[in-house]
Design brief:
two-stranded parallel ribbon; binds NADP nicotinamide-adenine-dinucleotide phosphate
């Protein structure tokens, strides 16, 4: 079995790669930083008897995605889309380039590559697609509604993809990590009780793939938190500073 990871240099993807290798998956690592991926490849190959290939991939280079996927051999059995960009929300409100980068990375880039993967898996009538979205997409908040709206789009896309591909025997898993201690959240004060570690996220994703789960809230408390947040009436919600 071969697993392809997009955004392979992210802290969550690195933990996932190690976890999948322990479970004897061969790996295809796709990302922008070849140096980091080269180190990860040799580290995993030394520790586990699996094949690891690395590929340069940029989520924002949409026009090259079809040719990029065409050259991939073998085609993967599992695809996990991990890349994402939190960005600087305040800057993005003034700077369209920053807004566009947030939307392009988290939504347009994901759709661009997953459309191609989905068609391949539908033709082969097999495969698993995992997308890492975010609870930030469950309701728009003043502090990060650009990132949140892109993730909301991704969550809806994955839901539609799951519905479509179910009829071809392909499974789609949506992951809602909650807070995770990674480079993305470095410098933020994260409440320990609702914050997961990358290794924990990776293990739960591997279990959720095996269990054919549809949506995974890494820490189940987040399902409850978001239920409460989603149910606050709009006339109250708009007055909060969230
Ligand atoms: N950490 C959290 O609390 C949290 C919560 C909810 C959801 N998530 C989601 O979890 C996923 C993984 O995040 P993380 O926390 O592990 O963050 P991270 O360590 O900062 O990783 C982000 C990854 O995205 C890659 N990336 C960004 N733009 C890209 C592009 N244009 N093309 C290809 N790769 C690109 C980065 O690659 P470079 O190394 O090349 O920059 C990096 O590998 C993301 O989708 C994030 O939105 C995280």
């Amino acid at each position: 079995m071969t697993a392809l990871l997009f955004g392979a240099t992210s802290d969550i993807a690195i933990a996932l790669a190690k976890c999948l290798a322990k479970n004897k998956y061969n790996l295809q690592l796709a990302g922008r930083d070849m140096e980091v991926m080269t180190g990860l490849k040799s580290n995993i190959e030394i520790q586990q008897q699996v094949r690891v290939s690395i590929y340069e991939f940029d989520a924002e280079k949409f026009d090259g995605h079809a040719a990029w996927y065409d050259q991939l051999l073998p085609k993967p059995d599992i695809v996990i889309l991990v890349f994402g960009y939190l960005g600087n929300h305040q800057k993005a409100l003034e700077d369209w380039k920053e807004s566009k980068r947030i939307l392009d990375t988290n939504y347009v880039g994901a759709v661009s590559i997953l459309n191609i993967v989905a068609n391949d898996f539908a033709n082969r009538k097999q495969g698993v697609i995992v997308g890492i979205s975010s609870v930030a997409g469950n309701r728009g908040r003043m502090s990060n509604y650009l990132y949140g709206s892109a993730k909301a789009g991704l969550t809806a896309y994955l839901s539609g993809l799951r519905n479509r591909l179910y009829h071809s025997g392909v499974h789609v898993l949506t992951v809602m990590p909650g807070f995770v201690r990674t480079q993305m959240t470095e410098g933020l004060k994260l409440p320990p009780l609702v914050t997961a570690e990358p290794d924990q996220v990776a293990q739960k994703i591997v279990n959720a793939i095996a269990g054919k789960r549809n949506t995974l809230y890494v820490l189940p408390i987040w399902r409850l938190i978001m239920l409460v947040i989603r149910n606050i009436p709009e006339f109250i919600f708009k007055k909060l500073k969230l």
